[in-house]
Design a protein that fits this description.
Elements (H helix, E strand, L loop, with lengths): L6 E3 H5 E2 L2 E2 L2 H12 L5 E3 L15 E5 L3 H16 L6 H5 L2 H6 L4 H25 L3 E5 L2 H28 L2
Helix pairs in contact: 3-6
């Protein structure tokens, strides 16, 4: 969604052509982004909660069901394996790392969903206690509805700002 703020995808930071960054470097780079006044960070790395989640004004949690997550991983991996994506992550993807290896994307997603979800609930609550607005969306339909609300609010605030600006003192 185009909101006019600088945007960073944590996957693009973590996965370099030379391989994944060490955790401390990953945290440092994410922290540099979130020290600014305006930013949007995409991605879910709970190890960055203190440098990303806790610094946010709004935390959007896409809390989708596991079956949807699995479907999307399979679809995206097939797309990448077919050579239709030139990202660093896609270039490193193999059938084994996508589906069949012990640490494949698919197995890891299922394992992490089950293991990490209770921790996410706690970390999201901690962020909320720090004053971060939490938006928990549980389906693509809820995402679309929320996006429409944000666009409408942004359009209204821009039109009011323009009116204030042109009206003068």
């Amino acid at each position: 969604m185009e909101l006019g703020y600088p945007h960073a995808d944590l996957d693009d930071i973590l996965f370099t052509p030379a391989g994944p960054l060490p955790l401390e470097e990953f945290r440092r780079q994410a922290g540099e982004i979130t020290c600014r006044d305006e930013w949007i960070v995409e991605g879910n790395f709970s190890k960055l909660a203190d440098v990303v989640w806790h610094r946010a004004d709004v935390l959007v949690w896409l809390d989708f069901p596991l079956v949807l997550i699995v479907y999307r991983i399979v679809r995206r991996s097939l797309y990448q394996l077919a050579g239709r994506d030139d990202s660093a992550q896609a270039r490193r993807l193999t059938w084994s790392t996508a589906f069949f290896g012990r640490r494949s994307l698919l197995r890891t997603a299922i394992r992490k969903y089950r293991k990490n979800r209770p921790r996410y609930v706690q970390q999201v609550a901690e962020a909320a206690e720090l004053g971060v607005e939490v938006v928990r969306l549980r389906s693509p339909q809820e995402v679309q509805g929320w996006r429409q609300e944000v666009r409408k609010g942004l359009a209204e605030s821009r039109s009011q700002g323009a009116a204030r600006h042109t009206a003068g003192p």
